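Note on ligand handling. Small-molecule inputs were canonicalized before submission; formal charges were left as drawn, and no protonation-state enumeration was performed. Where a ligand contained multiple stereocentres, the stereochemistry in the source SMILES was retained. For S-adenosylmethionine, this procedure yielded the string shown in the input block below.
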Amino acid sequence: MTQTTTYIGTSNHGFAQYAQDEIRKIFPMTKFYLLVPTEVFLFEIPAGAEESLTALKEQEPMFLRHVQPVDQVWELSRTDADIENLKEWLREAYRAGLIGSGQKIATQVRKEERANVPYAPFTIKAALDDIIVGEIQSEPVVRYSDFIISVYISAAKVFVGLSKPADNLSDWSGGAIRFMKEEDQISRAKFKLLEAEQRFGIDFSVARTALDIGAAPGGWTSLLLERGLRVTAIDPAAMSPRLLGNPNLKIYKKNAGDVKLKDNEFDLLVCDMSWDPRQMGRLVADLLYSLQSGGTAIITVKLMHKKPFQTVKDILRILEPSLFLIKAKQLFHNREEFTLYLQKT
Ligand SMILES: C[S@@+](CC[C@H](N)C(=O)[O-])C[C@H]1O[C@@H](n2cnc3c(N)ncnc32)[C@H](O)[C@@H]1O
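Structure output:
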């Protein structure tokens, strides 16, 4: 009998189709059922759980932000019976040894707008947390858990699954990673670099010198300065006055094509230029002499014509002689764009 593994997948709004295309490339016979148009979908992979998960992690689809396993499904009753079913499922998971005592357990509940249920997601979390504390003798946590219980309430059904955080591609509910907005934050764009740092597991503070191309008003530059780097920022537009006079910052108020840098001057290159990807790629390629061998590059790529896979090919054709791709991912904070994590050869 063929095994089937079921997940709920989430992408950024408008990109579910691309995530599905990528999954279909790994497992051509996968079946898809849309839950939230262009964003959330159920998918059934015709393979066992381990094989499915290994493939999804090793060939991680660019547009798949988050997955949660589906271990059990119920028709929605829109009464407290839905919560009772979930409580019983958790007790059974404990009895079966799938979840044990002394662990950190996060419960993430997502509910579609159309679900129209009389209870709030928080009520479900509170009910399961009571069992986690009282019956399982484990600790309910929000982040840094050993296990995640993922509950999804669609218009017609309740889905639940149990997983390790790394197996969800993101340990944030639905992959919607949130950062606190600082009072004096220079730009929202800063969140993109913060997310790249987390998602790609990069420690910017081990770098010493960074080049920021398309830097204004300076959100990315400010993060790199906070991490202790010396930063060279290039942008014809003005940097935030808050950054001016910083002894670790050198600003070229110029087009990136008009700047002369030193060979191997930087160990990190970042670029967040909202520009045609091919032109941006050529500008970056022309400045790559300034990045040391082994240096890291983080580059945002604009999706101008909604042909993401062609755009990836085009930009890599320009960059790949000098840079090799570690990961391409559409981050939660990317809108009509995606982020490349590369390394200088
Ligand atoms: C999205 S903004 C960058 C935001 C920045 N990362 C932040 O955190 O504040 C894009 C920037 O790219 C700059 N840009 C566009 N073309 C450029 C070029 N040829 N050379 C340098 N900068 C350029 C624009 O002036 C704009 O300030």
